[in-house]
Amino acid sequence: MKKIKILLVDDHALIRAGIRNSLINQEHIEVLAEAMNGAEALSQLTKTDFDLVIMDLSMPEMNGTEATRLITEKYPDVNVLILSMHNEEARIREALKAGAMGYILKSTSMAELLEAVETVSKGEPYFTREVSAKIMNQLVRGKENEHANTTSRLTNREMEILKLISEEFTNQEIATKLFISPRTVDTHRRNLIQKLHAKNTAGLVRYAIRHKIAEV
After folding, report:
1. Are residues 119 and 181 in the same domain?
2. Which of 41, 83, 91, 178 is deepest in the core (most CB within 10 A)?
């Protein structure tokens, strides 16, 4: 079995020793080197081929986020697993944006550490449950904000017309209901397609249903 070659990066010697001792009895894992900050980690990568970097975030000289960004740029075949005490959404988001494939907390169990090492070393993402929940919260809020930003650009009249379009009323029928001309309805329809980046009327209907402007 091919061994997973690991570079361990943390500014606390006791933590590095604890992680090393946790992994030392695993026949398929080998901690080849250690570093106490991001700059040392980059130096180690010029000397040895690694499969995985286990990276702390808060370190002097060069923090884990910046080191992760440089590692993923210069060594795309090396995967980075963040092992940190920080569980704030901003920290997690920055680490993932930098290129980290996994993020677990220092309070994690030995079993989860091993699972994370094995998963991320294959280039597959791994996040501890608490981190996964925060990532999902970010995604949900992002979609809500996107919806709010898009719909806020629509006028009340456009919202009215979008709802009627989704209910399959024709231009003439919409014009009659709203006491405007069919040409005005058509202009609003074209403006809606442009604002909502839809390809056609069917796209407007899908948007209205997806954002609960119209009932299914």
Report:
1. no
2. 41
Under a CB-based contact definition with an 8 Å cutoff, are residues 80 and 68 in contact? yes
CA dihedral 163, 167, 168, 169 (to 10 degrees): -70
Domain hosting 198: range is 149-210
Residues 103, 57: one domain?
Answer: yes
For 103-151, how does the pLDDT look when each residue is reduced to its tens digit (9 = 90+)? 999 988 989 999 999 999 998 888 887 777 666 665 545 555 555 555 6
Same domain, 125 and 162: no
Q: Which of 47, 64, 75 is nearest to 9 (CA)?
A: 64
| Separation of alpha carbons 63 and 59, rounded Å | 5
Q: For residue 100, what are the contacts with CB-CB under 8 A and spacing of at least 6? A: 55, 68, 72, 80, 81, 82
User: Which pLDDT belongs to residue 67?
Assistant: 96
4 to 82, 117, 119, 121, 205: CA distances (angstroms):
16, 8, 11, 7, 51
| DSSP-derived secondary structure letter, 151 | H
H-run or E-run covering 118 = helix 110-121
How many structural domains does the chain have? 2
**CATH classification at residue 156:** 1.10.10.10
